[in-house]
Amino acid sequence: MKQIITQTETINLDALLAHGESPSDGADLVFIGKVRNHSRGKTVIHIDYEIYDTMALKELNKIADEALAQWDTGRILIVHRFGRVNIGEASIVIAVSSSHRDESYRSSRYIIDEIKKRVPIWKKEFYSDGSEWIGDRN
Amino acid sequence: MIRIRLKLFASMKDICGFTEKDFSFEKPVSVNELIEELTGLYPAVSEKKGILLIAVNEEYTDSGTILEDGDTVAIFPPVSGG
Prior knowledge:
The complex is a heterodimer. Helices cover 30% and strands 43% of the residues of chain A. By secondary structure, chain A is of the alpha+beta class. By secondary structure, chain B is of the alpha+beta class. Chain B is built from two helices and five strands. In chain B, a hairpin with a 2-residue loop joins strand 3 (53-56) and strand 4. The longest helix of chain B has 11 residues, at 31-41. Chain B is globular and about 35 Å long. Classes of the chains: A alpha+beta, B alpha+beta.
């Protein structure tokens, strides 16, 4: 089962994880990416995520399909927020289940690494004294 | 005449001051030529030239791609989601 969601609302993890489970899965691995209050020596107040939503959904689906083709997993759930995300809030959740834990760890790691390379989403960090797009400096 | 829809994101949107605009050309153009046109209008685009990513109709491609009538081109800096 594959579920891909982009949303502005706070992520309700309990509701998302309440369905899609399989009795054959012995591992349910949840990665939560959060907005932290510091970045390269600056104090971050919040982050604004901009998204090319239709393309982002396509790329997220491709990444999930690639992971499903490589590892024997049950559920793959990816939720990415856009718009303003405050300190301590989840910007991304990746949940992967599998019979044994190794497949989930590998799949989850692949998914987050590919998201950071390919999915058209950009973060703009807001500080007490200004703001900056992240990514341009690379 | 061919018509191209251009979408910009993140710092590219800030530099040019729009998120979406239609361009028309007398003959087929490459993405590179579209970027040159854009740089003529907004010189600060030149600062981003080395890092820009290109998608045509929501699929990544390179800047040599020749655009067809009705294509949607997105030009943006490296992604930073997660």
